[in-house]
Amino acid sequence: MATEKKQRKTEDENREFKVEWTEAFAFTQNLNGLPTCLICQETLAHNKKSNVERHFTTKHVSFSVNYPVGEARKKAVEELRKSQEKPPSVFSYRMQSSNNVNIASFVVSQEIAKRGKPYTDGEYIKSCFIKASEELFRDFKNKADILRKIKELPLSAKTVKDRTVKMSSNITDQQVEDLKLASALSIAVDKSCHINDTAQVSLFVRFISPTGPKEELLGLLPLKGQTRGEDIANAVIECIEKHHIPIDKIVSVSTDGAESMTGVRNGFVAILKEKISHEILTYHCILHQEALCVQTFPEEICKVMELVINIIKSIITKALHHRQFQEFLFEMESEYADLLLHNRVRWLSRGNVLKHFAFLLTEVKAFLLEKGVHYPELSDDQWIQKFYFMVDVMSHLNQLNRNLQGKGNTIFSMLEEVISFENKLSLFAQDFERETLIHFPSLLKHRQESNSDIDICYFKTTLLNMREAFLHRFQEFRDSKATLAFVKKPLDASVTELNFSPFNIDIGDFEMQLLDLKNKELWSSKFVRLCADMEILEKNKCELSARHRWSALKDLEKEDMLIFNTWNSIPDSYHQLKKLAFAVLSLFGSTYLCEQSFSSMNLIKSRLRNRLIDENLESYLKLKTTTYKPDLPKLSKEMQGHCSH
Fold this sequence. Notes:
It holds the Pfam family Dimer_Tnp_hAT. This protein is an alpha/beta fold.
């Protein structure tokens, strides 16, 4: 039987560094006996002449030309050796030390900004750091040196503010650099006022960078005067032109659907379209449309919600009653320790308020009876039916809302969620028609406990009316469905169903490339694997949602990143397909990020910090929302180190 041939290993060949390589290729031997380049300091894995020679001839061509073999090369190499053997001077040591202090100052300032804390927290953090270090490094011989370095850390309020502005500017430079390389971008625009009643326009851009999809705050634009569509358009266009981003790269815009945004003649979108030389897609935020559909509840059901809010207010807003109610719940060993107060701004608030009230309804009745407060509706079976119906419906709507929110969702997936919910509403109506109430557990429990006759026709009609509202909305998403689906299912795409007008696609080349992709298993199989990966992702989402582990959902890989990685692995010979895929992948389906930035804005610029100027507010928000990392070594070298003040 033939013996297996032993694979040769370079470490078994006893190769050694050759002295002549120093002059010939500018290499020296490090402490581990491996060849190290004197020019770029790169260390090679093996003492092999061919590796050394290849490194020198490919990476240091200019050195080879400027210093030919002979006396010139020998002298240049000797100078390189001397410069590396020379110990660092006291001046260079101090410069490096100062640079490290500056970088540390930037790091702390960045953390302060990301958490929306005041600039003055810098000195507080420094004080804590010093006191903790006195104990932490008590047994260290160089304790005094460590404490001196910490005390040199510049973290005054002014320093933290300056560092924040510099980091924000650096991130903007990185954003603009990638935006100029992108073939297409989309914008999401929304408007809100902060505590000083100054209108702020939040401008987010979505594009495909070399590393994947990006959703970035390009600017927080203050409007000092009026807030007409013309004013919003001027601010947005000025911001884009200020950064020298070609405005024709915009392929879509998403807004909240307000009149100033969507007005036919003077709306922001209409004015923006005039500035762009091609057709663009316009979307009314899918979350806002969903919220408008919910408003189709009949007036009687809306009054149920109003009464619930009034009862909660009567308990929570009176300090004594609130304390007594909490103590009452503790004595009753209730599942919840308190009621929730409704917040109209928060999308999920209404459902959570109703859920808590439903669980505590018995305790609320008992507490109100003890206080001599009487609400006849709480004993009315028709009112109770409407209340439990609303609890269950809002639970389903909250689930839809969670699926539509967050980063990394593609616009096609959001549309699928809406269409799925439309069909669920038909199923819910059938559930009432069969009188099974499988999907309405709160109402079913009430029927079983009180033996009530449920008003089947009333609730069924309510659900069908809501479904009609859903069907009449989201039209712009439905019209683009085939184009939106292309990023996930290019193998099912038909050229006649796709909308190419916003994307500058050569249809002839696109047809040929699509046909080629479909018939080559090497590339088409990648999209089969993509579907399998997305199935796993969706399964993990469902499992985490079922266990109410909402924070863990953020750690899962994003759907748009899975799609990007698949398309990025396709060769550039399919450039027209990739161009369309990346353009569609860059579309915004909602203004969720704008709304989220306004929540952060109101936390940062609060009643206690109402003097924060617009430039600094924008810097805060940019550092809080960005996925880019500021180039701290570069920023540190650009400034002169100084001690704390």
